[in-house]
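Protocol step 4 of 5: obtain the predicted structure for the target chain.
Materials: sequence only (see below). No template structures provided, no constraints applied. The aim of this step is simply to have a reference model before the mutagenesis design in step 5. Sequence pasted as it appears in the construct record:
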Amino acid sequence: MLMVEKFRITNQREIILDELRAVTTHPTADELFEQVRSRLPRGSLPTVYRNLERLCQQGLVQKFEVGGSQKRFDGNAKLHYHIRCMGCGRVDDVDMSPIEMLDHELSKKSGYTVMGHHLEFWGKCPACSQSVDS
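Step 4 output (structure tokens):
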């Protein structure tokens, strides 16, 4: 028999989710901890990490790891793409519709049941591009 774990949105989780959804900077857990400290004076960094992981497991938050750097979190859990600056590490959302045919095509060609995909672009943000050109 499969047991489904109940998931409650506790006050801590609600505050973390609110703060994460209020920004588009895709913060690390450390950065988010600094944001929530005033609203969660008894909270700790491990508490923020633990709650972020639980929110990710529930599909309310996206987590992505950028080669060798800290995990970043996104309060927008809908499928969307990101672009990362190779200069400063900034991560932004890409304002374009997800490529829906991609999952279907990959499934046809590979035989896999595709559950979703993650697509990340990389380049130089406007500030880093300008500093290189100067």
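Step 4 remarks: The beta strands are 62-65, 71-74, 81-85, 91-94, 120-123. The domain at 79-134 is CATH 3.30.1490.190 (Dna Ligase; domain 1).
Proceed to step 5.
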